[in-house]
Amino acid sequence: MNDPFSGFKAIQKEAWSLFTPMEVFTTPSAAKLVNFAGVAAGQRLLDVGCGTGVVAITAARRGAKVRGLDLSPVLIERAREHAQLVNLDVDFRDGDAENLPYGDGEFDVVLSQFGHMFAPRPDVAIAEMLRVLKPGGTIAFSTWPPHLYVGRMFALVARHVPPPEGVASPVLWGDPKIITDRLAGKVKALSFEMDMMTPSALSPQHFRRTMESTIGPLIRLVVQYKDEPDKLRSYRAEFDALISEYFDRSNNVMRQQFLMTKARKV
């Protein structure tokens, strides 16, 4: 089947390959998602958009039988290294959240930490995640609310690098009303919980530099403006101002709130 977004996904695959340093920040929130989902030993679990495997490995340490999938082969390689370090048997493979290479009802739990939200078609991604989940199984994911720091950062990026036509904004997955609509009739016992990630930073500019070297869309934005210094300067001033709103100067951390969603498949 021809994928109309194959070009977009190829760019994403390349852009997100430098994400690895951010795992120091996403590791604590991975444990929060695993706890929130109530992961238990013996469960068959899939981590969608698994990145460097922080959620998958946290779940595997609890005795779950885990598989992880991500678009980036570079991040999958890192995930395999993490699993080998603790001698955990986790099946990591590169693949597409919109076309999961697993059977119907294969998993007891399907999780995603800031991963599935980047699939261009939310309806396709959620249909696939629910397809591989058994009836009564748990789906849970962490996303970024549109009105808070990360959501506003992605909106800023989209103003400078508009996404291709038909690609949904990833931050819509951070709006409980939209999540409720997207899952309507497919799940029961839907619940939400807010939590906080606190990456360390010496200044807003220091944090921006970290983001520009690890976050796919920001990497692309800087490349786009490499020969337009005025536009680059203007975007950076805007971004620094946004970061400053969430930078806790007294503690050298960013305050990044995220939303966790949990439900059971009907």
From TrEMBL:
Gene Ontology MF terms in the entry? S-adenosylmethionine-dependent methyltransferase activity
The protein's matches in SUPFAM superfamilies, at most eight in alphabetical order, are given as: S-adenosyl-L-methionine-dependent methyltransferases
Asked whether the keyword Transferase is assigned, the reply is yes
Tell me which CDD domains the record gives: AdoMet_MTases
Q: Which residues form the Methyltransferase type domain?
A: 46-141
Alphabetized, the UniProt keywords read: Methyltransferase, Transferase
Entries under Pfam families matching the protein: Methyltransf_11 (PF08241)
Q: Name one GO biological process term.
A: methylation
- Organism's domain of life? Bacteria
Provide the protein name: Methyltransferase type 11
Q: Which organism is it from?
A: Bradyrhizobium neotropicale
